[in-house]
């Protein structure tokens, strides 16, 4: 907003205006808080900047300014803002709009949205920590330090880090934030969140000639003469002058050259380099560089589409003339990514920004490699495996215009775009776009559509197996629809075969969890030096262990689930709360040593395959093997380089990966995916089977997919084998119309949680009655106890509310739901219940 700063009185004397700021605290608070702006900050405070405030008796927080005005708060005395952090806003007006929409639509607080949206390094609190800057030299500081600043530096030298609270105690003053800001500006300290990694800037060691030899040609000539008797050292200096022609421009010497350029040269002596440094002829220094170096001079290389891809692109552009949203329904391997790249180039040529969303980090590793060849350093990457500092660099890079294209997972929708012209949501059907815990429980696909509305830009949704709701919107004409039904180049769709594991078990032809057919085909492909992907939708070694004698099964002490066995760590682990314990040697119930594993996960598949195929190089890709930052990239790089013969994985291997040497895909246990108590079960099973099948035979080789099932007569398999999405869609849409599910109804799931099971049941029953009484024209289902009825010591009850799209205002219904929840919480017996609202659950 345009804020008042000064006004003139009748005698032209300048008067001071008292300003107030409404701020968004990163806390689950129902309202914004208002703080008073000190007079000397009037000219410096803007909507979207971060300020430091005191909240409560002791807590110090950074927050975002949402509004600046002259109206004091009603009902409480406004505290003063302590400090303004930013000279320019770090949150844009468009972001504040989308943050407010998310809070309203997904029934959470704006503070919860801000907490999810901002990288940790942009959120400071009384538990934020400071440390000495890596380049700070305490003996020779660049800038003079005040006594208070010297006190902090000395303490950091002793303790390494200090919290803001400890700084206040050290200085024995309340308002010390200006001192912190001064030390940051002098590059004496840096700030990091205690829960995040310490800030470690990317530092490069460099070398340069001593300035004496650069500014005086005679001295450089004399140096050459002196080094004539030491040819190896002379070679180093000559090589440096070749890389850094100081005789043409003396200022080039200031930047120097990366040390590793000289040390990695096999023709130069490392000892000679070190000798030159010791003599003071070469100076060694360090410089902090960006993790995303910019090279604006690099041209975008030429990129050629096939006729089929050109036709699809032109149809998309034509539909964008009348539709804001277009669905690209392209079978696996049809070349959708190349179409995306061409559309991104056109958006960039028009000066716009592009957001390219992917559902999984695993996909970004391979696609980033492809995109960086086209867009170079114009491309920013944003996902949770990046360090907090890297995410802040991308955030600031978008604000400054460094990045024209950002590829990222669901959290990328929070970034500060100011000129979006295109959003691409690839694999739009994926449930990974949905945030489950904590709030906001948003769906990035839906937020992207609203983000596009605020930016007045176009959205392209892409999938080989679109969500039923998405395809319904496209088929009914609300959105545009473009179809790509041919694979790119010479590649054809793979052959799909079913193997009846029940029959093979009866014939005793199963080798552990591998049918005779699958094992024979794996061996055949490996002999041809082709690669194999095996899909099992469960990680770990076994879902649970069991005592053969007394039937004891270990359970999680916090959740109503059995503990999964992980062989690598020799431990039993809960996949819901993280509780773990050591694998017992004997049954704690009866003392028997006859403990066996039941079922199997990816770890067991990998283990058994190594015994069956000892010559094969087998690797596993699941949550357990991809916890470190670069693990995705390494596993994918090894597979692309044919260092790995067989890749065993969970859903991660089903999505968008492109390997030219994969000719066989095996689905180990298809039934576990189909037999799930959810109205989307068949849709998800079809999507998963088709997606993982699409990894086979992508570069001309004929692919084969083997699906192992105990019930091959299931109708879903015929649709998969014929790649008949329309048959699946027609069946699903009829079922949903018949039983009132999306897209014909809206669904809101309300989960009641309490540590006392009986109180939980009572509160849920009372809440369901409140909903039924207040929403007469809609359906309230439940309460019912979910399949997993206890998680993290909380008992659960679920209520599903189906809202009629035609006759119910979603906004008013949400107000009724929120009011009913508040009414229940007024009851002293239910004061400690937790109620979680999930709008549009998936």
UniProtKB/TrEMBL annotation:
Superkingdom: Bacteria
Kindly list the GO molecular function terms attached to this UniProt entry: 3'-5' DNA helicase activity; ATP binding; ATP hydrolysis activity; DNA binding; zinc ion binding
Residue positions binding Zn(2+) 2: 556, 559, 574, 577
Which residues belong to any copy of the Helicase ATP-binding domain? 317-484
Catalysed conversion reaction = ATP + H2O = ADP + phosphate + H(+); Couples ATP hydrolysis with the unwinding of duplex DNA by translocating in the 3'-5' direction
Residues binding Zn(2+) 1, per UniProt: 547, 550, 587, 590
Similarity-based family: Belongs to the helicase family. PriA subfamily.
* Name listed for the protein in its UniProt record: Replication restart protein PriA
Instruction: Supply the source organism for this entry.
Output: Adhaeribacter pallidiroseus
Give the organism's phylogenetic lineage: Bacteria, Pseudomonadati, Bacteroidota, Cytophagia, Cytophagales
């Amino acid at each position: 907003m345009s804020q008042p700063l000064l006004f003139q009185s009748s005698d032209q004397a300048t008067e001071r205006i008292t300003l107030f700021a409404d701020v968004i605290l990163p806390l689950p608070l129902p309202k914004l808080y208002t703080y008073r702006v000190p007079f000397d900050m009037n000219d410096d405070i803007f909507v979207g900047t971060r300020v430091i405030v005191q909240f409560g008796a002791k807590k110090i927080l950074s927050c975002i300014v949402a509004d600046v005005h002259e109206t004091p708060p009603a009902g409480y005395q406004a505290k003063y803002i302590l400090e303004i952090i930013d000279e320019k806003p770090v949150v844009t007006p468009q972001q504040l709009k989308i943050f407010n929409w998310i809070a309203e639509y997904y029934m959470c607080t704006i503070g919860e949205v801000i907490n999810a949206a901002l990288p940790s390094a942009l959120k400071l609190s009384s538990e934020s920590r400071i440390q000495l800057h890596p380049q700070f030299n305490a003996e020779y500081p660049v800038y003079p330090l005040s006594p208070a600043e010297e006190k902090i530096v000395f303490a950091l030298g002793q303790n390494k880090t200090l919290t803001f609270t400890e700084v206040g105690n050290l200085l024995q003053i309340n308002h010390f934030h200006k001192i912190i800001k001064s030390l940051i500006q002098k590059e004496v300290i840096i700030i990091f969140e205690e829960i995040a990694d310490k800030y470690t800037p990317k530092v490069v060691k460099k070398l340069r000639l001593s300035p004496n030899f650069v500014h005086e040609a005679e001295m450089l000539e004399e140096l050459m003469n002196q080094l004539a008797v030491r040819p190896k050292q002379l070679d180093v200096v000559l090589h440096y002058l070749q890389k850094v022609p100081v005789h043409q421009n003396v200022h080039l010497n200031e930047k120097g050259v990366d040390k590793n350029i000289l040390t990695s040269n096999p023709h130069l002596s490392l000892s000679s380099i070190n000798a030159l440094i010791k003599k003071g002829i070469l100076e060694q220094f360090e410089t902090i560089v960006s993790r995303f170096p910019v090279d604006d001079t690099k041209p975008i290389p030429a990129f050629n589409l096939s006729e089929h891809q050109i036709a699809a692109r032109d149809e998309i552009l034509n539909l964008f003339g009348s539709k804001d949203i277009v669905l690209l329904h392209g079978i696996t391997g049809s070349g959708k990514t190349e179409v995306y790249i061409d559309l991104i180039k056109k958006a960039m040529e028009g000066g716009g920004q592009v957001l390219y969303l992917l559902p999984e980090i695993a996909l970004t590793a391979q696609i980033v490699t492809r995109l960086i060849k086209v867009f170079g350093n114009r491309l920013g990457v944003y996902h949770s495996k990046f360090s907090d500092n890297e995410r802040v660099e991308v955030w600031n890079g978008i604000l400054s215009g460094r990045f024209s294209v950002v590829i990222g997972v669901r959290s990328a929708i929070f970034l500060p775009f100011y000129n979006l012209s295109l959003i691409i949501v690839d694999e739009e059907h994926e449930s990974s776009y949905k945030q489950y815990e904590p709030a906001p429980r948003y769906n990035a696909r839906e937020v992207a559509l609203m983000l596009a509305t605020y930016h007045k830009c176009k959205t392209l949704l892409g999938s080989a197996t679109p969500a039923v709701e998405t395809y319904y919107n496209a088929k009914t004409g609300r959105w545009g629809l473009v179809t790509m039904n041919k694979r790119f180049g010479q590649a054809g769709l793979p052959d799909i075969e079913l193997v009846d594991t029940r029959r093979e078990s009866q014939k005793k032809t199963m080798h552990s969890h591998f049918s005779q057919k699958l094992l024979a085909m794996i061996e055949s492909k490996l002999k041809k030096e082709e690669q194999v992907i095996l899909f099992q939708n469960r990680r770990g070694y076994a879902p649970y262990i069991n005592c053969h004698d007394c039937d004891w099964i270990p359970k999680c002490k916090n959740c109503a689930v059995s503990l999964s066995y992980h062989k690598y760590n020799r431990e039993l682990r809960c996949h819901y709360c993280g509780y773990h314990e050591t694998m017992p040697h004997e049954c704690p119930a009866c003392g028997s040593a006859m403990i066996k594993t039941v079922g199997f996960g990816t770890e067991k598949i990998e283990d058994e395959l190594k015994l069956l195929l000892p010559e094969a190089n087998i690797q596993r890709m699941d949550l357990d093997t991809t916890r470190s930052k670069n693990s995705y990239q390494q596993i994918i790089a090894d597979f692309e380089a044919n260092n790995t013969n067989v890749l065993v994985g969970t859903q991660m291997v089903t999505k968008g990966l492109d390997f030219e040497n994969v000719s066989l895909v095996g689905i180990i246990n298809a039934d576990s995916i189909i037999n799930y108590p959810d109205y989307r079960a068949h849709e998800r099973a079809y999507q998963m089977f088709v997606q993982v099948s699409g990894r086979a035979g992508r570069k001309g080789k004929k692919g084969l997919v083997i699906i192992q099932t105990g019930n091959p007569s299931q109708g879903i398999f015929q649709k998969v084998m014929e790649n008949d999405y329309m048959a699946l869609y027609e069946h699903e849409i009829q079922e949903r119309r018949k039983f009132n599910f999306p897209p014909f109804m809206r669904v809101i799931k309300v989960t009641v949680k309490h540590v006392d099971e009986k109180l939980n049941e009572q509160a849920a029953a009372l809440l369901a009655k409140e909903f039924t009484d207040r929403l007469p024209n809609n359906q309230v289902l439940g309460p019912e106890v979910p399949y997993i009825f206890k998680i993290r010591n909380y008992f659960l009850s679920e209520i599903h509310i189906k809202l009629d799209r035609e006759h119910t205002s979603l906004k008013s219904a949400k107000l009724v739901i929120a009011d009913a929840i508040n009414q229940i919480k007024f009851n002293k017996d239910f004061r400690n219940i937790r109620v979680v609202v999930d709008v549009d659950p998936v």
